[in-house]
Specification:
Blueprint (H helix, E strand, L loop, with lengths): L3 H25 L12 H7 L5 E5 L3 E8 L2 E8 L2 H12 L4 E5 L2 E5 L1 H11 L2 E4 L21
Antiparallel strand pairs: 1-2, 2-3, 3-5, 4-5, 4-6
Length: 147
């Protein structure tokens, strides 16, 4: 009888540690999202290890095509929050997957946006695809708005 109580106590303690391990393990498997990055288009591109191919270099918007080990995507920075939101609202009509930070947006495949999010932070938004096909490429519409 004396051996039973210590064994039960050890089993109970082991169960508590096992359950605690399971709880923390569940959150450990989900990729960590850092604080949302800020900075110039070149700074953001360097953070995700891409050499930006500039498409638009204006006062209101700077936009480049990038490619890295995660995939191909469009990266844009904006002079104002309002300009960014107007651009996103217009571009979302063309579909696509958007990683949105403060005064910047990346547009590309879901898997690419998820990978970039682990380095840049931000929030993922999805556009509305009216084309009837399931293309997961960066939206052509994502590169056109330049309000």
């Amino acid at each position: 009888m004396r051996l039973t109580r210590p064994i039960l106590a050890l089993s109970g303690a082991a169960l508590v540690f096992a359950l605690a391990g399971c709880g923390s393990g569940a959150t450990a498997t989900k990729p960590a999202v850092p604080q949302t990055a800020t900075g110039s288009l070149e700074h953001l591109a360097a953070e995700v290890k891409c050499a930006p191919n500039m498409q638009t270099d204006a006062d209101e918007i700077r936009q480049a095509i990038c490619k890295n080990s995660d995939g191909k995507f469009v990266l844009a920075t904006f002079a104002t929050d309002r300009g960014q939101r107007e651009w996103i609202n217009g571009a979302k009509d063309y579909g696509g997957h958007y990683l949105v930070g403060r005064k910047w947006v990346a547009v590309g495949e879901t898997s690419t946006m998820n990978a970039l999010r682990t380095r840049l932070g931000g929030d993922i938004e999805e556009g509305t695809d009216h084309s009837g096909h399931g293309s997961d490429e960066p939206s052509a519409g994502a590169s056109h708005p330049s309000h």
